[in-house]
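User: Modeling request: complex.
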Amino acid sequence: MAKIYSKKGLASKDLKPKKEVVSFLLSYSQALKIVKTENKNFEIIAN
Amino acid sequence: MADLHIPDALLVKNYVEGNENALATLIKRHESKIYGFIYSKIADRDISNDIFQDTFIKVIKTLKSNSYNEEGKFLPWVMRISHNLIVDHFRKTKKMPMYRETEEFSIFSIMSDDSLTIEGKMIVDQVEVDLKKIIEELPEDQKEVLVMRMYQDMSFKEISELTGVSINTALGRMRYALMNLRKIIDKHQIILTN
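Assistant: Request completed. Predicted assembly structure:
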């Protein structure tokens, strides 16, 4: 049988970020409000 | 399951309009690809998680400030952000090696002058002159393509447009030009090295 010499890429595994990271992002998104003025953006993060 | 049929562009639009669930769907849909891409470059789970998080913080900020204008190309856009963050990470962590001169170790053992000697320069000049002479021996159509490609650094597309032939013909002429050059070099046993 033919040998495969190419290395198996790291990306081929089904990798996922931590649940905590995704959960943080969703909470961050819910808390974040961006108010646009003429030439400035204000970021407001609700507690 | 219904979420699978909603295109990214529509989810982005819904998210910008205030539907937070749309972001959850987008993350769920692409998390594996994006995280896998980051991990393939970083090979460290924790740092990959950090970069994944920073990527989406940028995504969220851009979308919430209505600065996103690449409708329909959500994934490549996010991948580009993560790619830039990966580059930043490597820039930050790149350490310059430092060497100190000691009795056992001389700095000159790892330093060298790569520039050519006078003799080396003369040989290179001679090789270039010889090569130009050989190129002059080629048929006109092959010579034209070779000169444009090697000396004028033109792409085959540009060459084909300028000479009025197809790209494949230009490629073919280049191939024959190189084959003929080799033949001439072999025939006259010319040494083109320094």
